[in-house]
């Protein structure tokens, strides 16, 4: 199922944080949303799963807008891994990942075999098997990040949205998570994620959308989008892509 954003605008106070964005991601694709701090990436993602209501524009999931879906059906089709504050309650890793199945069966219903299977697979994929009985409040930042990803994976959605999924992760786990997203896309998932590491974005994303001050200033294959001028103008760095690898020489 495809996700498409048309003419999206979000205002906070009298400031346009997302300023007329058109964007789409299709099944099988990993789309990277990149841009400097404060460019509106998180705000844009939050409109997709209805955490924020835009002042204009629409978000389409398949043939319908996200507002037309009952909440639970939207949650089954589109799941998100967000940058969350620390967990307040005492829950185990498994219990948090199991929350990803609530949209399939309801809060009061017991876990079914398919729920347990989805949770087990998500826990394994996120490298959390040995931590599954741990209290989430005792986890490191990177471990908590992987719990958030596992909960989104446990939904088994059609569209997966991730806000800086590599944040806090060591390099091995960064590559592991991005490799996993590529595998899931190969199986037909549509993946939209934000990333700060442009080198990883170039290596793992099919297309990049560059957000600057709330506007998409470029979208397309990484090698076409990240030219020397854009790297300097938007990111303030000197760099270029050579043989599908981004070299960063330093600040402008
Ligand atoms: N609730 C709010 N009240 C006031 N300003 C806000 C609010 N939420 C976001 N903003 C502002 O909107 C702008 C975009 O924020 P957003 O978090 O979407 O950026 P981002 O691209 O995800 O940034 P980062 O790379 O730092 O995570 C920022 O200037 C931020 O300060």
Write the layout of secondary structure elements.
Elements: E1 3-12, E2 15-25, E3 30-34, H1 41-48, E4 56-61, E5 64-65, H2 71-77, E6 78-81, H3 93-98, H4 102-105, H5 113-125, H6 141-154, E7 159-162, H7 171-186, E8 190-194, H8 198-204, E9 207-212, E10 215-220, H9 222-225, H10 228-235, E11 237-242, E12 245-251
The chain binds adenosine-5'-triphosphate.
Residues 12, 17, 35, 37-43 line the site of adenosine-5'-triphosphate.
InterPro entries: AAA+_ATPase, ABC_transporter-like_ATP-bd, ABC_transporter-like_CS, P-loop_NTPase
Pfam family, one: ABC_tran
GO molecular function: ATP binding
How would you characterize this protein structure?
The chain is α/β, with parallel strands linked by helices and 252 residues long. It has a single domain, classed as 3-Layer(aba) Sandwich (Rossmann fold), CATH 3.40.50.300. The chain has ten helices and twelve strands. It has helices at 41-48, 71-77, 93-98, 102-105, 113-125, 141-154, 171-186, 198-204, 222-225, 228-235, and strands at residues 3-12, 15-25, 30-34, 56-61, 64-65, 78-81, 159-162, 190-194, 207-212, 215-220, 237-242, 245-251. Strands 6-7-8-3-9-10 form a six-stranded mixed sheet, with helices on both faces. The protein has a four-stranded antiparallel sheet with strand order 2-1-4-5, with helices on one face. The radius of gyration is 18 Å and the shape is globular. The mean pLDDT is 95. Adenosine-5'-triphosphate (ATP) binds at residues 12, 17, 35, 37-43. Residues 12, 17, 35, 37-43 line the site of adenosine-5'-triphosphate.
């Amino acid at each position: 199922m495809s996700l498409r954003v048309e003419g999206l605008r979000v205002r906070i106070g009298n400031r346009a944080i997302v300023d007329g964005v058109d964007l789409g991601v299709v099944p099988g694709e990993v789309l990277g949303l990149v841009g400097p701090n404060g460019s509106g990436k998180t705000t844009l993602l939050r409109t997709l799963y209805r955490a924020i209501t835009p002042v204009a524009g629409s978000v389409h999931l398949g043939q319908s807008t996200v507002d037309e879906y009952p909440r639970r059906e939207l949650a089954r089709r589109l799941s998100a891994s967000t940058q969350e504050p620390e967990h307040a309650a005492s829950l185990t890793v498994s219990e948090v990942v199991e929350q990803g199945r609530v949209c399939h069966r309801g809060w009061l219903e017991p876990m079914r075999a398919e729920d347990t299977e989805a949770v087990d697979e998500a826990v394994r994929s996120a490298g959390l098997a040995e931590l599954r009985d741990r209290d989430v409040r005792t986890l490191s930042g990177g471990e908590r990040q992987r719990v958030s990803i596992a909960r989104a994976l446990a939904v088994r959605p059609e569209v997966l949205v991730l806000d800086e999924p590599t944040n806090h992760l060591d390099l091995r786990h960064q590559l592991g998570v991005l490799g996993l997203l590529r595998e899931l896309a190969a199986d037909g998932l549509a993946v939209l994620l934000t990333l700060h590491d442009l080198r990883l974005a170039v290596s793992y994303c099919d297309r990049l959308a560059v957000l600057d001050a709330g506007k998409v200033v470029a979208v397309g294959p990484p090698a076409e989008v990240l030219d020397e001028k854009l790297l300097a103008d938007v990111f303030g760095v000197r760099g270029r892509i050579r043989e599908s690898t981004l070299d960063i020489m330093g600040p402008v």
